[in-house]
Each structure stands twice: as structure tokens, then as C-alpha cells.
Amino acid sequence: MATIAISQSSSFASDSSKAKTPAASIFAMLDRKSKIDPSDEAGMTLESIKRAIELNHVSFKYPIRPDIQIFQDLSLAIHSGKEPVLFNDTIRSNIAYGKEGNARAAEIIDATELANAHKFISGLQHTVVIVAHRLSTIKGADVIDVVKNGVIAEKRKHESLVNVKDGFYASLVAIHMSASC
Q1: Helix (H, G, I), strand (E, B) or coil at 3
Q2: What DSSP letter does each residue of 99-128 carry, written as one string?
Q3: Is the dihedral of CA 78, 83, 84, 85 positive or negative?
Q4: How far is Cα of residue 107 from the mean position of the Cα atoms in its chain?
Q5: Is residue 151 within 8 Å of residue 72, measured between CB atoms?
Q6: Same-domain check for residues 80 and 130
Q7: Phi first, then psi: what are they for 65, rounded to 5°?
């Protein structure tokens, strides 16, 4: 019985050795001391910030799928305006998550001040950029830029896009709706 267990465990040896190098690099990254001191007030303070995001002539392919163009010469201007979202929720909810969602407003403010992030977070103009593959993630967005073959094919609100005759977004929504029935 012991012989069988030992011989079967040897089949995991190659998987174990493959995991050793990535695990070591992850632990090295976690153990690394940051070069940034969050309590240090020194450094450049920007007088004004342009509250917009611009992507100019961006082309992108995933390394594991180099034959599929995700963005092809994509140019996009996004103006400020929406609630900030991090890890699929608001910044407040993400900070509160550290206390299993039971943090008081004062505790959240204290946490942002300790992290030297309160001034930055308070000054956010609520713009969110989401790259999504699920309809439920984006249908409430102010503007949806629909990317087809690496370029923006359509750009409107969900309610308008679903009504575009022969529209790419409308066809994706129709496929999604028929698949979920």
C-alpha cells in the first residue's frame, strides 16, 4: 500500500517543481520593502490635474493569443464624472472590506489618512473605465464604447445601443439574452 502511495506521489513532482519558481518570485515581491515612504510629504505636488483619460493609438494583443487583435490603433477620450470603482465596488467598500464590511465612516477616513491617500481620494472626479466581457458589468454605464476587431464600432448608452438595427452591441445582447433563457 505504501509503495503505491509513494509511486503515485511522484507524478506530482513535475507540477511541484514548476510551481516552485513562480512561488519564489511572488514571495520575493511580497517581502520586498517599498521604495516609497507613504508618510513622506516630500516630492512633486501637481498644481492642477487634467481630469480626463486619453488613450492615443493603442494596439494590444494578449501574449498567449497573438493572432487576435484586442485593440487596433484605439484612440479614446474619457472625461471625468462617475463614482470610483476598484475591485468591482466603491473605494469605500473596498476599504471597509478590510473589516469584513463593518467599518464606520470615521474608520475609513482614518485608514485613508494613514495611507496618505485621503486628499487624493477626496479629490477624485468619479470617472470609471471598465473593460468587460459581461453585459451585467457595463449596462448601467454612462457611455459604452463597443470594440469590434480591435476598433470602436459603436459608442452610446446601453438603452440606445440595444435599439441600433443590425448593431454589433445589439446582436451581442440578443445572443446573451437567448443563451440565458
Answers
A1: helix
A2: TTT---HHHHHHHHHHTT-HHHHHT-----
A3: negative
A4: 25
A5: yes
A6: yes
A7: -135, 65
Amino acid of residue 115: A
The three cell numbers of residue 103 are 467599518
Q: Which grid coordinates belong to 49?
A: 490635474
CA torsion angle for 91, 97, 102, 105 (degrees, to 10)?
Answer: -20
DSSP 45-101: --S----EEEEEEEEE--TT-TTS-SEEEEEEEEES-S--EETTEEHHHHHHHTTTT
| 112-148 pLDDT tens trace | 898 888 888 888 777 767 777 788 888 888 889 998 8
How many structural domains is the chain composed of?
3
The cell numbers describing 165, all together, are 438595427
**Residues 108 and 130 grouped into a single domain:** no
Q: What's this model's pTM, rounded to 2 decimal places?
A: 0.47
